[in-house]
Amino acid sequence: MPGAPILVVDDSRVNLKLMRLLLTFEGFDVRTSERAEEALQMLDSFRPALVLTDIQMPGMDGVEMTRRIKGDHRTSGIKVAALTASTSKLDNQRAIEAGCEDYISRPVDTSTLAARLRNLLGEKPLARPAIAAPAPKPNSPAPDVGTLRQRFLRQGVDFSREFLESLDTRLDSVRMSGQLHQWAGSGETLEFPTIAKLARSGEELLAESPLRAEALREGLTNLYLTFDELLRGEDPPPPDYFLQALRGKRIALVGLPPDRSDEICAALARVEARPRLFSITDELESQSIRECDLTILHVQQGMDAERLSAMAAGAGAGQLLLAGERADLMNMAPGMQAAAAEYLGAWEPEEVLMRLALASTRTTSRLVVQGPKAGRRGGVASPSVLLADDDPIVLALLRSILRNYGMQCQTAENGQEALRAIRETKPHVAVLDVSMPGPDGYEVLTAIREENLPTLVVMLSARQQETDILKGFQLGADDYLIKPFNPLELVARVKRLLRQGVHA
User: pTM score, two decimals?
Assistant: First the structure.
């Protein structure tokens, strides 16, 4: 079962992602927010044991948020710990006076963070099983931190180059200052001290009056060269799976925000795909889009249903991926959801490549996935679903949601129960937690495929490394979801699998 609930508040997405990885890896139930105002609203329905907050944030800062938490009788019992890169005793004292029980200096010591938070919460150290995977070495990153570091460096290369070019055109000092501030904090968190130092120096130069343009140019140049050099040392080649599926493919990106499209174009270049950019005001059923092998459409609230239907018809079966906020995706008309080969509720480049590769595989059947998949069933009016997870709260929630959507559900709390039920009842879909006890999710999946059981499989996991997800597909999984997720997304994915049927 998940550990104590923690809410992490930070205006840096990199820092939020890292804290989620580190704390989830240590067994905590983690939620995140980029703004203090949003975090306070979350407390109406979510009651964490601890709020871990950055002090310096735009709008309401962490100190003011702490005062409001401690000043409200409904939330005053929540522990608050401040995250700060400041070495000023005054800043730390302000945090304590506002009500923070502790403050943690950046860069964060990842080897002691979990123990420090458990001590703050009055918990005992996490008991490790007698037989377990080797414990991470002190100061070693949690799973997927390497991917996070690469993403940080790729973004740094692109943005620092853009800032350099803007010195000769139009300088946006507010945006540049905000980005430099984020790099200073994230550089320390991700153990890039040189980047943190250069970013902090650039922030100070921007604050000078008059602005010393040549000094700023030199600082940004050094920052760009440092990002580029570090990226060359950390950026591994993409998996062969992605190259096989996407090399040479024409990918239409329709209506994506500029920063997202830049990231995704860079990721597609790594797998030798050919992105094409379209505005949402373009003709969505145009021949140029029809000629593309796959289309990613950014869905936004209030989009015209007729234009979306034209987009779906133009893309063709199995070629349309809907991207956007999960709430917007799940609120779309059933007909539009049915037209999608995949949903993209996350914008990370690795997630986009994974979903594109899966959509391409299902469309072209070029890639051979290990394990037979014959005899799958689709188009079922009242499908049967087996839910296998060692968390009874997760089981109860998902069972209730799926039953409300007309699905017959049975549950299992370990791999042995799950495999026995699948053999006996042959459900249409099995939803398997990767890390459940008994045989784990991978082992249950292997048995399903070896015995040629006609069951579609969705893997649930808190793991976020490409290799873990690829392992599931190599063993014969049909889809996956990363915890935490919206239960309605599971409903949508189960329906899509049953509707389309999946054949290798």
Answer: 0.52
